[in-house]
Amino acid sequence: MRLSRQYAPTLKESPAEAEVVSHKLLLRAGMIRKLTSGIYTYLPLGLRVLNKVADIVREEMNRAGAQEILMPMVQPGDLWKESGRWEFYGKELLRIKDRHDRDYCLGPTHEEVVTDLVRGEVKSYRQLPINLYQIQTKFRDEIRPRFGLMRGREFVMKDAYSFDRDDAGADESYKAMFHAYERIFERLGLRFKAVMADSGAIGGSFSNEFMVLAETGEDTIASCLSCDFAANLERAEINPPQGAAPCASLPLETVATPGKHTVEEVCEFLSVPPSKLIKTLIYLADGEPVAALVRGDRELNEAKLSNLLNAGMLAMAPPEVVKEVSNAPVGFAGPKGLKVKRLVADHELALGADWITGANAADAHHLHLDLARDAEVETFADLRVITPEDPCPRCGGALEFAKGIEVGHVFKLGLKYSSTLNCKYLDEQGKEQFMVMGSYGIGVSRIVAAAIEQNNDDRGIVWSPPIAPFEVAVLSLAGKKQEVADKAQEIHDALESAGIEVMLDDRKERPGVKFADADLVGYPMQLVVGDKGLANGIVEAKDRRTGERTEIALENFLENFKNWRTEVRNGWGL
Ligand code: ATP
Ligand code: MG
For a pocket test of ligand 1, which of 20, 138, 153, 206 has the largest count of ligand atoms closer than 8 A to its C-beta? Predict the structure, then answer.
């Protein structure tokens, strides 16, 4: 391909709307353009990257025995009403009506549609297991679409769905997908980690997320330095504390703490460390006021609280509710006499009997509060966010924290959809059984952004070779010299005939512009063809990732180039 003919409008400055580096660089390198909030057009170079990611995903899904289908984007509301998700999905589901006033939605995911397909046709145990997948555009009306391709409203997902006879079969299907995902992320050339994840509202026995490691990631991963434990922070459990039973309680005391609402203010005022305090956090769980207690220096894990309470909807209570249940302004709630439906506490609080808490009265706190004596705690459970100082919940080893971007999610669904949508088969005895399902997503377009978040520098994108729009850029520094231009074209043609994807920068631009654009677009390998090099029988080669330069002799050029290419790819772990 010749750059002079390529539609790839690069920009010198980052557009103001872009906050994260992948979004900035995708715009600057001429790979995407915004149509409207969270909705983008892929320009030729961006589409090449997207397609390469999709091709690797497709090859590995096929290798794992999944079969590709293509389901519609527009889905009938009736099917969602049947599964019960029409009510529960909330505003991310974009609902529309047709001319007959019938309900439809744009598919944010396809459990309903695929289950409807299979229940109509798969009747016998002999037809199972099956795994069907698609690579298709999803629509989710995200509350805050942002970061370009990272969190779009319209985005490309690979979604696969497995149907098995029984639990053991479903576990096999799950494992096959897990291993396919490992191969996919290895082949993409990205550093990644598979972690245990929260199954959330979807439920089921297990779920793993695949994270691309990047400092800018929104998720935190806790992993053990001694064993293979790795979990999303949301999901990392903390074992119950071991320790001595609480000492004898002192009598409860109330002290004035005028205007001291926050943990810091109270600690400073009473000259105590935050670990002496209990924070009383008030939530609405499915509309009912509940409270969770954690130590003053800890952070509540909302996913754990939501799982413990089995809450469909969990949200911080608004100030009016806090005032009502605590009889006090915000900042003075405490466990003694709090008017909530359920009161739960983090299990480490069971180890103390001398806490400082809000007194459920304006400007007052309790001293020497003993939860066993002074409050009615329903359960003590694991409720807080793990910290790097906590031991590994599996082996007790030291933990390490890292940032990641969720690019894939595998779920064991069990009977959730097959039972609500009545998806059954006849077993060997002729008895009807529900199929056991799994669902497996990969954010194909999010991977494009995540790859950039992981690999970039101040000059631009650094693509890993398997997903680069072109693997090699040949920069022709011909000026007015036709023989240099001819040689650059010859090198381009030789590489192209050898099946290597190559872009020739044949524009009438200064060398500085060509270098800058090649670095910005992020071709992993650059070849610079100039008259000085040609006079010495070489072209200069640059590895975009390391910046290392080397000379490639023109004699036996293809062989020399391929050796260097192997080195560059090895550097990527490919
Ligand atoms: P998130 O927590 O980031 O919203 P999710 O749990 O809603 O993700 P899934 O329903 O598991 O995501 O979807 C499968 C995959 O699709 C995710 O792992 C992610 O890579 C991708 N994905 C989800 N939402 C978006 C989005 N708005 N834009 C781009 N990719 C997305
Ligand atoms: Mg989401």
Answer: 138
Please report the pLDDT score of residue 204 as a whole number. 55
pLDDT digits (tens, 9 = 90+) for 460-478: 999 999 999 999 999 999 9
Nearest CA to ligand 1 atom 2: 406
Element (H, E) at 381: strand 379-381
Pocket mutation for ligand 1, best pick of 140, 144, 157, 403 (most atoms within 8 Å of C-beta): 157
On whether the CB atoms of residues 282 and 317 are closer than 8 A, the answer is yes
Residues 6+ apart with CB under 8 A from 508: 4
Distances (CA, A) of 262 to 322, 330, 331, 345, 488: 15, 9, 6, 19, 68
The list of the chain residues with pLDDT below 50 reads: 201
Number of C-beta neighbours around residue 241 at 10 A: 12
How far apart CA 44 and CA 143 sit, in angstroms, is 29
CB burial class (10 A; 0-12, 13-18, 19+) of residue 172? middle
Task: Output the CA torsion sign for 369, 374, 375, 377.
Answer: positive
Q: Distance between CA 24 and CA 47 in Å, rounded?
A: 17
User: What is the per-residue pLDDT for 205?
Assistant: 63
SS3 482: helix
CA atoms within 13 A on the CB side of 79: 20
d(CA 143, ligand 2 centre) in Å: 10
The pLDDT score that the predictor gives to residue 17 is 87
Q: How far apart are CA 111 and CA 421, in angstroms?
A: 10
